Amino acid sequence: MTALETIPEHVTRINEAKTPTGPGRPGASTAHITPSTEHLTTDDIERLGAELEVIRDRVMSSLGDDDARYIRRVIRSQRGFEAAGRILLLGALFPPAFLAGTASLAVAKILENMEIGHNVLHGQWDWMRDPEINSTTWEWDHVSTAKSWQQTHNYLHHTYTNVHGKDRDIGYNVLRVDPEQEWQPIYLFQTFTNAGLAMIFEWGIAAFDLELDQIQRGEATWRDKLPELKAMGRKAGKQALKDFVVFPALSGPSFVPALAGSVLANVIRNIWSHAVIFCGHFPVEVETFDEERLENESQAEWYVRQMLGSANIDGSVLLHIMTGNLSHQIEHHLFPDMPSRRYRTIAPEIRDICRRYGLPYHSGPMWKQYGGVLAKIARLSFPGGHKRTAKQRLRALPFGRRRAESLDAAPTAA
């Protein structure tokens, strides 16, 4: 395989094919002007977009053998960890085998969901034309079906990132993660709701992917949802049968500890996925937007929205692999169909673009990012939060601390 001259047509560029306002529409509104971008002219934003296009074209035209070897190596490693975990749990009556087997199976599930499943389903590896490692054929180790997840994640979330009323990932319909979400008494308990969601995260995402709230709004009926419910039921049944019946039963007298190990591996995977995703989307510095923002939004403005609406996690190469390179959430949101291993190589360029154009580049160690998210969820369980959030977002901007302090004299929003 040689470096590619062009990207095959069947690779979907979400930011071209899915963004309904499309690139380069005339008559762009002023909705893109926020405290983060008010110093930029329309020409500045278009130049920024052009620089990003150059980076994307350079990387996508250079994909080749090294990239293909990487994803195949990760898949082999993941399958090795899974096989080792299953075998070790056959002897789960022995504590060392239980611990090693559970850890190995948890690593396998994390790798499959994060660095493999999530990225394959984004079409990042479709250019290889491998019938197995392809967004149209891959079915991941997750309760959600690939098709339903691609609809809610690839399309809705990546098209309408952080737009109120369009991006359903803002709080996943159960959490208040932005002060612009109307407060309801149920949010008083969201610290506990969030903890429970973390432990069953794949099941929560599967229920979320069904978009059952459409029935409440009168946009769909139960009959309309029946095919999706049946598909998820089949997928969930297979997952539960595999993890909680078949493999534990193979261990014979070790059934109970083997079952416990399998349950624990799934919980570990769920908590890790929850932490990574929340760190990338919900730190207090990350911005949200009104629907007006979408009006005649140009491709370059779409790029800026992705940069302002995402946050990275600082860490080692191993951390990046275990997060599916979603530790480079900014780069992922800019180029969702770019192979994840390339995000680390372009991250310094993206950071430099943000520096030169005076835009924030939100990044920090995982403990700080996740701690901040949990504190934000706790604060927003109560009404208000507008003024504090506005100040923290301003502080995150280049030279924004003085402007944040100026808000001290402003009245608190309800």
Automatic annotation (TrEMBL):
Annotated region (Disordered), positions in chain: 16-36
Top-level taxon of the source organism: Bacteria
Phylogenetic lineage: Bacteria, Bacillati, Actinomycetota, Actinomycetes, Pseudonocardiales
Oxidoreductase as UniProt keyword: yes
The name this protein goes by in its record: Acyl-CoA desaturase
Keywords, in A-Z order: Oxidoreductase
Domain Fatty acid desaturase, first and last residues per copy: 99-363
UniProt-listed InterPro entries: FA_desaturase_dom, Fatty_acid_desaturase
Species name: Actinomycetospora aeridis
EC number: 1.14.19.-
Recorded GO MF terms: oxidoreductase activity
